[in-house]
Design goal:
The protein is mainly alpha-helical and 108 residues long. It has one domain. The protein has 4 helices and no strands. Helix 2 runs antiparallel to helix 3.
Length: 108
Amino acid sequence: MDIFGMIITGIGVVFLFLGSLGILRMPDVYNRVQVGTKCTTLGNFLTIIGVGIMQPEWFWKTLIIAIFVLVSNPVSSHALGRAARKNGISLCDKSIVDKTEEFKEHTE
């Protein structure tokens, strides 16, 4: 089980590393939030579950933590993106579609 746990943890670390590279490469805050959310959610989940597999007595505690990460990380990233939009931070010049203007027309 230790080998399997190390493999799962290693995959999680790779996702976390790729997410950090994506945050550096993305042009605006909205793309960075999206990249950070997807990679850190999966990376944290796999890393935490891998530790739980390597330490079976911790498995249920790590599972609860991993589920909390799965629920809270997307919600907090949505709040960050929404706050950025409400504060007037604009999209980068390369962004083609802005669905928020369309949404505002339907809600008003």
